[in-house]
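Work through this:
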Amino acid sequence: MLRVVDGQKTPGLIGYVAPLSATPGGTLEFKVSSQGNRSVAARGLRLICCDPNPAGPGVKTEAADFGLAESYPASEQHAHLGSCAFGQIPDLSDYVSVEIELVIQPTLFSDSAQTVFSLQNAEGTTGVAMIVRGGMLFLQQLRTDRVFDVGLALPLNRWSRLDVTFKPDGFSVVIVEESPRGVEGKQAGSSRVTSAALTGADHICIAAVWRGHPTQAFDGALEGPLASARRLETSAWEIIASWNFGGDARDTWVADARGGEARLSLINMPMRAVRSSAWSGRNQDWKQAPQDYAAIRFHSDDLSDCAWETTIRMVVPEGMQSGVYGLEIDNGVGKDTIPFYVIPGEKTKRRRIVFLAPTFTYMAYANFARGNFAGDLAERAAAWNAYPHNPDEVGAYGYSTYSRHPDGTGVTLSSRLRPILTMRPNYLTYFDANGSGMRHFPADSHLTDWLEKKGFSFDVITDEDLDRDSLAALSPYDVVLTGTHPEYHTRRTMEALIAYREAGGNLMYLGGNGFYWKIGRNDDMPHLIEVRRAEGGMRVWASPPGEYYHQLDGDYGGLWRRNGIPPQAVVGVGFTAEGGFEGSYYVRTAASYAEDLAFLFDGISPDERIGDFGLSGGGAAGFEIDQAATDLGTPEFATVVAVSEGHGPSFHTTFEELLLPDVFDGAPRAHGGISANIVYGKSETGGGLFAVGSITFCGSLSHNNYDNNVSRLLENCLKRFLADG
C-alpha cells in the first residue's frame, strides 16, 4: 500500500536496521515507519532462500526466537532529502546592517524554491532566505513565507559572486560573474525588506532552510560564505563569521575560519573534495591543494541518515547461530522484512565455512531506480508475491551510486541508515524470460540455500565486519565463500583476502565482476560508502577530472585495477565482458583432464555442457563474466579448468581491457575473447583458490532438485578444500 507524502510515494510499513550485523549479546536497532502510527507485530526469521519463482526451490524461511514482544508501538516517520550546512551565528538583532557574501554555481534550475542561504532562528520560523526559482533570485520572509522578486538572474553552471546586504532602509543584491566579455556586475535593491526582518535570527543555513530538517534544498556548489555586520553606534563593518569549505573533506562539519564558535554541521553529507572556482587543473588531490577544492556541492536529494527513532531494540540472544536473518514486521496495512546478520561472537563455536556477505555492494546498488518496473516486471512481482516496492515508484529514501542527482551529477555516497528496497527478500531486478531476474541480496540466497540443502554448516560475516577486523575475521575458517557479485571493496578487505589465501586458507569466488571498484570509508561514519568513478571502467556516470579522490578517506578512487590490486591478484579472475541478463554454459579445457584435477569433475561426463540451465538468465555463465590474466596477477598455481561459450551479441569487452577497439591491453590469454573462466589451484602454502567468473553461476545450483553438474562441481571442490583443512 503506497501513499503520497510530501510529493513522494511511501509504503504503509518500511524500516531499516543499525548496524547490519551483530554478535550474540549485541544490540540491533530497528527503525520503522508505520502508516497512521499503527503498532507493529514482529517476529524473527532465518532467511534461507529468497527466490519467489514458482519454478525454483521456493521461498524458504525458518522461525528464529529473538525474544521479541507480541507488539510494539510505532510511529509514522519520514525521510527528509537534501543536504545543507547549519549552525549558530551571533544574534543579528544586535546589528543594524548585515552582509552575506559567497561564491555560487547553480547546477539545476526548477520552478521549486532552492535556498542559497537562510538567516533564521533555530526553528526556521523567523528570518529571511535567499532563494532561486527558475534561475531568478527571490527573497523569502520565513515568518510569512512571502516572496519578493529581486529581479536578477544567476547563470547556470557558471561561478558568480553573490553579495546580499540588509540595511534599515532595505536590502540590496550584487551579482558579479565571469563571462566571455570579461567580468560583469548586476545590482538590484528594494525597500520592501529591511534588516528588521533579521530580528531573532541567530543561525545560518547554507543550501536550505532548516526547519528541524532541510527544506527547499539547493542543487549546486557554494564556496567561501562570509557574514559581516555593523552595529548602530559605529560605521565600521566587522566579520562575524566566515567558513572555508576547502578544509578537511573527511569532516562532517566546517569550522569558523576566524577561530570563532560559528561552526556549521553538514547535514545529509553533501559532496566535498570537489573543484571550486579557482581550480586550474594543475592539482588533482584535494589534500595537496585545498585552495583548489574550496567548494561544497549540495543536492536536493542527498540522504546520509534518515535519523529515525528506534522502534524495536533487539539484543541477539546468547547462543544464536551465525546466519542470515530477517525481522518480519506487520502493521495490518503492510508488511516488511528487514534483513540483518548474526555474526560469530567470542563464545560462538565456529563452523569451518564462512559466507562473506557483500553488503558494500548491496549499498552501492541500494535503491537503484532502473526504469524497468512498469509492465511485465510489476505484473510478475504481483503474480509471484514478490517484494512489491520498487525504487522506480518509491524514491523517498534516496538512490544508489548508479543513479544521478537531479542536476545530472553522479551519486557518490550511499548510506545504510535508510530503508533499502533492493535489499529485501524476494526482490526482483529484471523481467528474466529464462529465470527469476534477481541480483545481489536475494540472488546470494541461491548459494546459502544450496549450502543448507547439501548439509554444509556455515557462519556469516559481512564485508563491513571484514573491513573492521581484517584477517582476524577470516583466519578461524577453512573456507571462505563469496557471493554472486562482490564488486565493491576497500583496501583492507582486498588485502585481508589475499593474506588469508597466502596463509593457507581456501577462497571460493562464486560470482562475477567482483573486486572491481574501490570504495572510500571513514571509521567515524561506518554507515557510508563512497564511489568516485575515475579513469575508465564500465560506468553509468564518470567523475569529473580533478575529483578522483574520496572525501571520506582522502584516497584515490576508481578501479582496483588502477589502484595496484587487480581482481586477478585476489581471486584469479577479473572482469572482462558483460551483456544482457542472460546465461550460457561452460566446457572443460584440455588442462582440466590432468590427473590431479579429476576430482573436480567426478560425476560429470567429459562432454557435458556445464550449466546450460539456471534461474539467473537460464545459464551458469552470463551477464558479467571474468577471465584469468597472468599479467594482472592470476597466480601461477591456478589452472583454467573450464571456459564459457555461446554468448549472444549483447556481450561486449569491458573498456578497461582495451587500448583500441578489439586491441587488448595486456598479454595474450589462452582462454580470451567473450568467455568466462573457471580457475582452480592450490599454492605451495596450501591455500586454495576456486573462481567461477560469472554472476549467474549460483542461479544454476538448485536445478533438477540440486542434482546437476554445476552443483556437483561446486560440491566436489568444497569437499576437497574441507578435506585439506
Notes: The chain has a mean pLDDT of 96.
